[in-house]
Amino acid sequence: MKKTILLFAAIAGLTFAGTKKYEVVFNSPAVLGPMEVESGHYMLSYDGPKVTLVNESTRKSFETTATVQTSPTKYSDTTIESTKDGGKIKVSQIHLAGTTTLDFTH
């Protein structure tokens, strides 16, 4: 069952060393491409295809790659497209507030 989940957290438009960071929340374990993360609050940043998620409570960092696409219309909120598979969220895309989409289906 494919659905778009509005993330509970507001978008954190923080700038650190020129890299924009976005707050994302996974309510259950999530799979992004080959990477699996525990449920929790994360700060997401990306540099080209390299995506980094940092768990806000444990400070544990996860890295993977994604295809970065630019949307023709601006997203007002950060959302994820996913399917649920065996209690885990399988993320196919993350739509970031602004204009970027990260695609994990490669």
**What fraction, in percent, of the residue positions are helical?**
under 10%
Mean pLDDT: 82
Structural class: mainly beta
Number of helical elements:
0
Please indicate the percent range of residues in DSSP E strands (runs of 2 or more): over 45%
The tally of domains stands at 1
Terminal CA distance: 20 Å
Q: Main β-sheet: number of strands, strand sense, barrel status?
A: 7 strands, mixed
Walk me through what this model shows.
The model is unreliable at 1-17 (pLDDT under 50). With 106 residues, this protein is mainly beta. The protein has strands spanning 2-6, 14-16, 19-26, 30-32, 35-37, 40-47, 50-55, 61-65, 67-75, 79-85, 88-95, 98-103. The chain is 0% helix and 67% strand.
